[in-house]
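re: that complex we talked abt at group meeting.

here r the seqs, copy pasted straight from the sheet so there may be weird spacing, ignore it
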Amino acid sequence: MKTIFRLFGLLLLTGLVLAQQPGRGLTPVEGRPEAPDFTLLDLDGETHRLADYRGKVVIVNFWATWCPPCRAEMPSMQRAWEKLREQGVVMLGVDVGEDEETVFQFLADYPVEFPLLLDQDSRVIERWGVRGLPTTFVVDPEGRLAYRAVGGRKWDSPRLLEAVLALRH
Amino acid sequence: MLDKFCRWLAICSMMPPLAFAEVQTGSDPETGLRFWQWSEDGVSVRLVQRLPDQTRGFFLARGFRAAEADRIARACVFQTIFRNDGARPVDFDLRDWRVLHQGQSSRLRVREDWDALWPEDAVSKAARIALRWSLLPTRQHFEPGDYNWGMSAYGLAPGSRFDLRLVLHIGGQPVEALLPGIECPRDGDKP
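got the structure back, here u go
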């Protein structure tokens, strides 16, 4: 009988191991280089300079309205921001190559409250070495690139929130 | 006997999954669009047909003029989903991939090819930016868990059939594979 229970337990363990999806988290950026500074306008015409957020953890998400994985991760980014905003974490969405009106229209379907900045000539994304959308960086309070994620994530998952919050002083 | 089996199972459960390549084809039940997928060791590349009309409409809405949007739309464009759900980093360069069609081997049309195609004044900067970022990156490095979606263009006429030779590096090791019998979408394929 004991053996049957052991066998059942092992089968369960085997199933769990096989079902587990590796990765999907945040990749530490080697050497934590300084994040390239930028100054961009948000949809309300307010200026955001990355360097002004020194001392805080900043999540910088490069995206576009037409990009399916970008759209898919937006609700979880909003939920994450609701949990992080009071804890010294800043979230900035940087739309690449689109105008204000296009992003406004997007907000009707995907209401997000964190600042959405416009990188209309794609100068900022080029300087950040991004190759595909979405790509997200987590900048530490010293203004260095701590983590990178290529492709969408479930940003409100406890594992990701913990990694972000652990960067605070 | 059962004890031995338990021990064997325990060992198996700790081993990484065995690597094997798999090619899948099928069609979306809702859209009728066909897909081809290659996967190995948790890494997968999936090509999903994009009708020329879809692609034409996408680029017209992003500032391309009709002739240029049509040129992209008729270049055998697929939505491409490249995922690394494996345990090792993955690198690729689309310029290493080959399109095998009627005994000829050719390259994909990557971001840089399209960018060089039109004189500066023929296509607006906004349209160029949209095209560049909507295409799968020419080169990419994926850590485990990373992925990209993007269009890939094969430069063949609608309805053409070709094989695709994929080249990538998984954990630094070169991997080559063949995705056979891919069909360029054509507007007549509408479900």
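couple things i noticed - The first strand of chain B starts at residue 21 and ends at 27. The helical segments of chain B are 2-14, 52-60, 66-73, 111-117, 125-134.
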